[in-house]
Design goal:
Length: 258
């Protein structure tokens, strides 16, 4: 496998923004702005309540819809949670897992992710696993230790032949929503390291697995980040709330395919 076979992937994480009505409007605008046949895989991650409307709005297009979280069990007494079969029934294609905001504010643990990542795969959903270090960890030289722990633990129960079906998003916490984007070199170093961690399990999976960068990606800085050899795309927060912004980032990715 060569890196050329990794299709660029842009995902927009809306976090807790947009109602179902706003999602429908967004979908129409986005489709009107996307360059046709651009070779870029694109996904939107709306809140649970806007998943159906987003799917409806994007119907017939190639744009995927991912949830932002999922419980590891298929059903159970877990008030407020949503399971993989519920997402599959809606037509959702995958789900973010382990976003730093879920780890920070809702006690998401590496232990739970060890069950969630394979549960998503088994249900037919694409897991997009988010990892990343805090500013303190980076300053203390702990970045690789943190990433090793997060990646190894979350992928531990994923069979070797499914490893490349997981998408990994490296999102340094200090770069999220701060405007302090990592330098392309920093992002490349961390993502190269993550790819090597997958390579410890399977060389073939390391060549094929897609690893994205997230943290203050904007239309103006996307191209230099996406040009790095190990960076296969971007997980975009704030800039994805505007369909124009997301379409511009898709164009930056598309320009690199050609
Ligand atoms: P921002 O692009 O707003 O920094 O958010 C990044 C993020 O957390 C995407 O999941």
């Amino acid at each position: 496998m060569t890196p050329d076979q990794r299709r660029p992937y842009i995902a927009g994480n809306w976090k807790m923004f947009k109602t179902a009505g706003q999602a429908r409007e967004y979908a129409q605008k986005l489709l009107a702005r996307l360059p046709m046949g651009n070779g870029v895989e694109l996904a939107i991650c709306p809140p649970f309540t806007a998943l159906a409307a987003t799917l409806e709005g994007l119907g017939g297009s190639e744009v995927k819809v991912l949830a932002q979280n999922m419980h590891q069990d298929a059903e159970g007494a877990y008030t407020g949670e949503v399971s993989a079969p519920m997402l599959v029934e809606l037509g959702v294609h995958g789900t973010l897992l382990g976003h730093s905001e879920r780890r920070q504010y809702f006690n998401e643990t590496d232990r739970a992710l060890q069950d969630k990542v394979p549960a998503a795969l088994e249900a037919g959903l694409e897991p997009m696993l988010c990892v990343g270090e805090t500013e303190e960890e980076r300053e203390a030289g702990e970045t690789q230790r943190k990433l090793r722990h997060q990646v190894q633990e979350a992928l531990e129960r994923v069979p070797e032949e499914r490893l490349a079906d997981v998408v990994i998003a490296y999102e340094p916490i200090w770069a999220i929503g701060t405007g302090h984007v990592a330098t392309p070199e920093m992002a490349q170093d961390a993502i190269g390291f993550i790819r090597a961690l997958v390579g410890d399990r399977s060389k073939d999976a390391a060549d094929r697995v897609r690893v994205l960068y997230g943290g203050s990606v904007k239309p103006g800085n996307a191209a230099e980040i996406l040009a790095q050899p190990d960076i296969d795309g971007a997980l975009v927060g704030g800039a994805s709330l505007d369909p124009d912004g997301l379409a511009e980032i898709v164009k930056a990715a598309a320009a690199l395919v050609k």
